[in-house]
Structure formats: C-alpha cells, structure tokens
Amino acid sequence: MLTIKDNDTTNELPPFLNTWPRMYSFVLLNLVALILLFYWFTKAFE
C-alpha cells in the first residue's frame, strides 16, 4: 500500500520569489497583464 511521507513536499518553498504569497501575486499580476495586453490587441486590430 502507498503511504504519504510527513516531510514529502508540504513544506517546500516555491522555485523562485521565496514565499508562496509572492508567487501567487506574481501569477495573478501576470494573468492581469496578459488579459490587458490581449484586450489592447483586440481593440487595436478590430
């Protein structure tokens, strides 16, 4: 039977930005920037 180790991956830091809130903020800001960029492209090339 497979078991999950206590120290498996639950306490790891993200690959960059050093904290999870910073990582989530980066991802959300990136998403907002992409949405705005695609909106601008849509309006510019209508």
Task: Please explain how this structure is put together.
Keywords: Membrane, Transmembrane, Transmembrane helix. The chain crosses the membrane at residues 23-41. The protein is an all-alpha fold and 46 residues long. The protein has a domain at 19-46. It is 54% helix and 0% strand. The protein is built from 1 helix and no strands. It has one helix at residues 20-44. The protein is elongated, with a radius of gyration of 18 Å. The model has no long low-confidence stretch (mean pLDDT 87).
Which features does this protein show?
46 residues, 1 helix, mainly alpha, single chain
Report mean pLDDT, rounded to a whole number.
Answer: 87
What gyration radius follows from the Cα positions, in whole Å?
18 Å
Order of helices and strands: H
Total strand count, please?
A: 0
The proportion of strand residues reads under 5%
Distance between the termini: 58 Å
By helix and strand content, what is the structural category? mainly alpha
Helix count, per DSSP?
1
Characterize the largest beta sheet: strand count, sense, and whether it forms a barrel: none
Oligomer status: single chain
What are the low-pLDDT stretches, counting only 5+ consecutive residues below 50? Answer: none
Silhouette:
elongated
Helix content: 40-55%
